[in-house]
């Protein structure tokens, strides 16, 4: 009888890695968390398995299209995981996207935090 042990890689959990699930949190939770990680670490690594891959790509595209991040690396792979229900080994697609801080990041983030105050001040002038 052969026993197959599947374990996670022994590399330590990176401080700037976000493992995205498409069931646990809303999309903009991850977008805002990624912004915070970019602010703190100058880059963020987004990773996902299976059906959550589309969510990771969407997060990356939102950050890039808003001028907040630049794409540094995209890595795809297939990993073996144990299916809890059937107890057998299944293959899952995996993606990792590394985004770096854009040159405009700081000025865009400053503008985003000061803009609502400016518009609300104008509303009270009437």
From TrEMBL:
Which InterPro entries does the entry mention? DNA/RNA-bd_Alba-like, UCP030333_Alba
> GO: which molecular function terms?
RNA binding
Q: Which Pfam families match?
A: Alba
Q: Where is the DNA/RNA-binding protein Alba-like domain?
A: 16-78
The residues that cross the membrane are none
* Any single Gene Ontology cellular-component annotation: nucleus
Name under which the protein is recorded: DNA/RNA-binding protein Alba-like domain-containing protein
Organism encoding this protein: Carya illinoinensis
